[in-house]
Amino acid sequence: MKTTVPASPTDQLEVDQDIISRVLAGNRDAFSVLINRYSDPLYRHALGMTGSPDVAEDILQMSFIKAYQHLAEVRGRFDAWVFRIVANGCKDWLKNIRRTHLSYDEDDQPSGYSTPDEELDRTELRSDLDKALMTLAPSLREAFVMKHVEGRSYEEMADLLGTTVGALKMRVHRAREALQALLEEKYA
Amino acid sequence: MLDNLNARDGSGDAGRERPRRASEHVQPLSDREVPLAGTATSEMINRWLDGEAPEPVALNAESTRQVDLWRRIEEESERRRHMVTPAHVKAQIMAALPADVPQVALPWWKKSIQVSPVVALAAAAGLVALGAAIGNSMRLR
Predict the structure, then answer these.
(1) Which residues of B touch A31 (CB under 8 A)?
(2) Assuming Cys at both sites, which of A22, B64, B118, B139 could form a disulfide with A30, CB separation 3.0 to 4.6 Å?
(3) CATH class of this structure's domain A10-121
(4) pLDDT tens digit string along A13-45?
(5) What is the DSSP letter of A145?
């Protein structure tokens, strides 16, 4: 199903509320519009936080099912509300489950590197970056993933996490310091 | 059980980080409150990565290596930024949704209740008895 990206946040809010009304009125299939619209950034967040495609898929599925069950409780922006469900799901997983799978196995993107050496180097960096990310505290990892992997602005992050731009800048800077300390011996 | 959707993992609020508990001091190094180094280079790199300044140039050898490292990390981040949800996951989510339409949550005082005639009669009799008891006690005064 093709969805049109709304022009402004107000339009987006209205469109989402209209879809929610349709779902609550019994049109279950309308929920797929919300899934199509928001699953990609949520999947990237879960993948960045857990480092495992399988776990990210599970968290995404559980989160959307939870969102469906509690859809009548949405007040304000659906995307911010469902983001908090996914973010909490990731934090719960990090607290409760021992990680056994730390690498990105799926890569649908075409490689921009030309030589086998560069490709090997890139794969190694990817693996090392994953391992380094997993050593960060969840709040630092969350901030780094939102800033670098999801490409969000500090203002957007502050809005979603309910904190200030200053606090988030500090977390991202700390995460960078820690990652640089872990990776520079090998790569810098 | 409902999720606490406003939970913030105890992290910073209103511009300040929450106080640390004693037990948290055994967390990994990166979790501790360590002041940032605050060197000119790290400041420049952070400003560059935050999009507030152009890429640093004319640096010493060590700083040049750090900038190169972050350029490579940014390339990897850019690749991850384009990852999409596997197609089968969306279909799985739709298939796993409950068949029931999500119900609008009403506060208890707005919810309708069903009472059987026997219960209604018993409640009425109880109210009459309570009223009579109150009336008697007031008459005795």
Answers:
(1) 94, 97
(2) A22
(3) mainly alpha
(4) 899 999 999 999 999 999 999 999 999 999 999
(5) I
